[in-house]
Amino acid sequence: MLKVLRSQSDRAILARVLHQKFICAYPKRQVREEHMFKMIEKLVKQLANPGEFFNSVRTEDWKPAFVFFLWVTLFISAVTPIVNYFGIESTDLSSSYQAQILAYKLLKNNLFDLYGAYAYVIEAVLIFAFAIPILLFLTLLLHLIYRLIGGQGSVLNAWKAACYGIGPCLFGGFLPYVSLFAGFYSFAMQFYLGPMTLYKAKESRAIVVFVAFIALTFIEMFVLGTTVGF
Fold first, then answer.
1. Could you count the other beta carbons within 10 Å of the beta carbon of residue 210?
2. Which of 4, 29, 178, 192 is buried most deeply by CB count within 10 Å?
3. What is the pLDDT of residues 170-181, one digit of tens each?
4. CB–CB of 224/230 below 8 Å?
């Protein structure tokens, strides 16, 4: 009987040791997997029902939205230089991020002559770096506009709309023509669906804002030939 109890005790000790070595030893990996699962879950909800999704994140703080933005931007930053390398230029017809166009202009005009193929690595860093100030500018712009049209709430609403609104860019936001659809859906999330829901703005006013921004975008493309301002 004592031998059996000792055997059971040994098995319990062995189980704890194995648990510590093979499960508890990889907390960072588990955290990354959890973050990835949550991001995919949010992306599916966002695409299936944008209004319901933005209502569900109303009580979140700024961090989850920013993590989502960073993951999507990291993916875009990594993939864009690869498609550029194989001959697909980052233009308004093949880019859903303005940061992609800005970085590619630098690559084409300066970086490639100086660094050769290594310039594509620099391009990836530039896309990521440009995306942050663009996000901040967009957040402030959305907050200002939606408060002017009677929306309620803090700048955190605009932050969530801007961060989560880039979700559709994952679906071909770096490919010719496909990026037009991804970019338009993202544009609608950021300038219409997201802020209208979060700020509880009147739909008619939100539609006016959305149409106005679309018109300004087309005017900019017609006059300057691009949406990045130069």
1. 18
2. 192
3. 898 888 989 889
4. yes
Reported for 221-225, long-range contacts at CB under 8 A and 24+ positions apart, including other chains, are 221/92
Q: Which two tokens stand for residue 29?
A: 């990996």
Flag residues of the chain having pLDDT under 50. Answer: 1-5, 11, 14-15, 17-19, 21-23, 25, 229-230
Q: Which of 163, 206, 207 is nearest to 73 (CA)?
A: 163
3-state secondary structure of 59: coil
Other C-beta atoms closer than 10 Å to the C-beta of 181 total 14
What is the token pair recorded at 61?
């703080």
Cβ-contact 73, 160 below 8 angstroms: no
Q: How many Cα atoms sit within 13 Å of 151 on the Cβ side?
A: 28
- Which stretches within 86-202 are classed as H helix? 98-106, 112-115, 119-148, 155-164, 178-188, 194-199
Q: Coil, helix or strand for 149?
A: coil
